[in-house]
Amino acid sequence: MKVNLKNRGLGKCVGDVFSRDLLILSGQLIYSHQTIMTVTLFNLENSRSFRVSWLIHEINAPVEQRYYSRINGKKAVPELSKDSGFSFGKSPCLVVEEEGQEKFIIFESGNCMQYILERYAPDSVLLPGTKDFRGRTAVIGWIDFSESVMLHVLPGIYNQWFSRPEDAAAVDHIAQSLSINIHKDLDLIEDALKEGPYICGKDFTAADIALCFSCELVLLKVVASKGEGRWKRIEEWLKRIEKRPAYLKTRENLKHEYVLNDER
């Protein structure tokens, strides 16, 4: 059977078999020695799994996707942990099942993104290979930034979640205390966008996918980020990449409420 991989964004295809000795059929990876591998992404609504799902659609990676909701907008339903086998019960979670091997679980959105790119789209513009060491380091650095420093906003969000109405003054005080670092985070991204339409310059990369979620969350949750119009480049960049076909396709199945184009 001949399989056309040319439009999958996967690199060079030689005959029936991908150049790394892979054959792809119906969402499964089949190595030339007939080992079958299935990769599944377990998604949770309004979570960082949106990054991974979006990336999968950008490169048309043969990854199965399953979708789960939250209980009262907070913790994940128990089926997420049960179905994935990931006792931590968090998302994103990639489960790799390969014939003759133990199930392999990959977690943390940046790690999931890097796994998918290096397996299905190695040396692509989304994540350059080591021959472009500077470009690769820049992309990975921004992904790490989105998963670490940009999370200054989370304490403020948790205070909103779990506070009582009579705690409003304390919640606002905490938000204002957090605002200095959150503003610095946004200022750094705003400054990076002076160099081109995307975070790393002229090309759309995985850094844009990772940071998009973080910036949407900060700006639309309005947690210590008051300053309408202060980050104009960020807002323009977000509205532009939110129109990408892969972004829109991701939203068809995965609930994602932090979208500037829906709000402004």
Automatic annotation (TrEMBL):
Q: Which residues form the GST C-terminal domain?
A: 132-264
PANTHER family reported in the protein's UniProt record: GLUTATHIONE S-TRANSFERASE 1 (PTHR44051:SF9), GLUTATHIONE S-TRANSFERASE-RELATED (PTHR44051)
The UniProt record lists the GST N-terminal domain at: 36-124
Q: List, alphabetically, the CDD domains matched.
A: GST_N_GTT1_like
Entry similarity comment: Belongs to the GST superfamily.
Mind telling me what this protein is named?
Answer: Glutathione S-transferase
The record ties this protein, via InterPro entries, to: Glutathione-S-Trfase_C-like, Glutathione-S-Trfase_C_sf, Glutathione_S-Trfase, Glutathione_S-Trfase_N, Thioredoxin-like_sf
